[in-house]
Write a structure and sequence with these properties.
alpha/beta, FAD/NAD(P)-binding domain, 3 domains, 6-stranded mixed sheet, 15 helices
Length: 457
Amino acid sequence: MENKNKLSRRHFLKAGAAAGALSGSAFPLQAAIAADTAAPDNTAALPFSIRKLLNEATLPKAKGARVVVVGGGWSGLTMAKYLKIHNPAFDVVLIDKRPEFISFPASNSWLADQINLDFLTHSYFDAARAHDYHFLNTTVLGFDRESKKVFTSSGFINYDYMVLAPGIEYDYSRIGVDDPESQMRLYNDYPGGFVNSSEVISIKRKLHTFKGGTFILNVPNGEYRCTAAPYERACMAAAIFRKRRIKAKILLLDMNAEIRIKKQGFEKAFSSLYSDYISYLPSAEISSIDIDNKTISTDFDDYQFDDAIIYPPVRASSLLEDAGIANLKNSQKVANTDPYKYHVIGDEHVYVTGDSRSQPFSKGGHTAHSEAQYVAEVIAAHALGKEVRWRSPQTMCFSAVDINPLKAMSIITFYKFNKLNKEFEFDRTHMMDDWNIEGGQASLAWAEGMYRDMFYK
C-alpha cells in the first residue's frame, strides 16, 4: 500500500510548490529528488524550504474525511462553515495567508467614514472556533491531485476533498502594461483596491489627502469583483471631495459601453449629486498608461491625472493555471469546471468557487456566500454517494451613493440556464435604484448579518 505521507519524485515535480520554493535553482531540485529515494536522515542536508515541503503540516489527526478549503474570503469562510453543517463528520481545514479578515463589501462606506474599521475586521480564529473547523494561517504554494496533497509554506496537507477559492489577480497586460517593473509601480502607487486590504487603506489616505486637480478612477471590462463597486467608489470619492471642499474633477473611465448595473440610480447620482465632480466617460478602453507622465491613453484620447485608482481587468488565481485546471481559452483563465456541480472536470474531489469559478454570476460577496452553501451541500452529498439538485445562487448587492446620512440602493437577482443558447442569464431580478436613507441602513444591516453568519454563532 502506498504511504500517503510519501512525496514521490513524480508528485514533487508536478507540484506547483516546487517552482515557488526552489527559486530557480537546479541544485535544490536535484537534491530534493534524490532525497525522495534516500534514507530519511539525508534530508537534513537539504535547504530548509525544501525540507518544509517534504514534511507534513502540523495539524490534528483527521477524524473523518478531510476537506481542505484554500482561501478565506467570503466563499471559503462560508464553505468551511456549511461543510460542517451538512456533514459534521468532515474534518475541515481553512487556509489563508492573511492573519485576519477585512471585508471588501462595505469598504466603500468605510472610505467615506460612515463605519469604522472594526466593523469590517474579523478573526479567522473566531470563525473556526464558532463553527468547529481548523484555521491554518499559511500560504498555499501548489497542489497535486494525484496524491491528493496541498503544498503550503507550513508543509503539505493530505486531503479527501479540496475546495479552491483563491480569489483573483490583476491582469495589467490587458490595459497595455506588460513589464513587471511598471506593473509593480501601478500596483503600489495606484492600487485598484480589490485584492489586498492594504490597497483599500492606501486608497482612503489618497482620498482624504488629495489636494485637488484631476483624479481618475476606472471600471474594468469582463467579469470582476462586484459589478457596482467602481461606480459606488466614484460616488464616495466625490462625496469626500465635496465634504472637504476641494476643487477636483473625477474622470470615471468605463471600459464598458455603459453603466453595467443600477444604471438609472448611478446616472441620477452623477447628475444630481456630483455634476460638479464626476465626468463619466463610457467606452473608454484603456490601451496604455504612461506612469512617469501620469497619462492614461484610450482608443480615442489621452487623459492626464494628478492621482488615480486604477482597477485593471482581473483573472482567476494563477494557482489554477499552474495546476493545469484553468481554461486557457478564456481571457480570465477561470477554472475548467462542471457548471452545475462546480467540480474540476474529471475530478469530483476538487471544487472551485468564488472569483475563480467559471460561471458568469456576479463575483460579489453575497453571491459567493450563497453559492458556497450550495457547493458545501454538493460535497457532503457526494461523500455519501448522493446528489443534490442544482439551485441558483442569489446576488444581493447594496451600493452607497451619498453620506451623512448614508444613502444606498440595491438589487436582488437569481440566475437560470437558457437551454437554447446554452448560457446562464438573469432571473427574478428586483431592482431598488431609488437610493435613500433606508437603503443605507439596510446595507449596514446586511453586512452585519453576513459577518455574523461567517464568523459567529
